[in-house]
Amino acid sequence: MEAGSIFRTILGVLLGELTLIVLTTVAQEVVVDGVHVATSSVSELAIGGIATLIAGLISGLLATLIGGNHNKWPVLVISLFIVIETTYLLWAGLAGNPLWFAVPSALALIASVWAGFYGIGKLKTTTG
Least packed by Cβ within 10 Å: which of 4, 17, 19, 103? Predict the structure, then answer.
């Protein structure tokens, strides 16, 4: 990997993760007043969940645009950050949701980040 590619990879990770943090905070704390399986209504869970998945999609798109079309490292590192954060929150008892809700939510967020990665690849191939 050359220096320019390494720089773009690191920048893709940093800006992709920052985007994910900001947009998931907006999705879960501004759009709805928290996403908690025990206290949120079904509509809040649905709206917050969909907004969070859109945040992951945008994050994956941005990380891929910056890091490079065939460079999986930015989305791989962002996915690893999601796993680490979810593990820590569950282990420390700070998740605010039970295991059966938090783990599938984290996996869906990871899937949406990867959908952004593959989506930008499809966009670039179909538009030339």
Answer: 4
**In whole angstroms, how far apart are CA 55 and each of 26, 59, 99, 120, 128?**
9, 6, 22, 15, 26
In Å, the largest CA–CA distance within the chain is 50
**Domains held by the chain: number:** 1
Closest residue by Cα to residue 19 from 74, 73, 86, 87: 74
Q: Which domain holds residue 98?
A: 3-127
Distance CA 47, CA 66 (A): 29
Angle at 93 between CA 40 and CA 55, to 5 degrees: 50
HSE-CB at 21 with a 13 A cutoff on CA atoms is: 9
pLDDT in tens, 94-128: 999 999 999 999 999 999 999 999 997 767 666 65
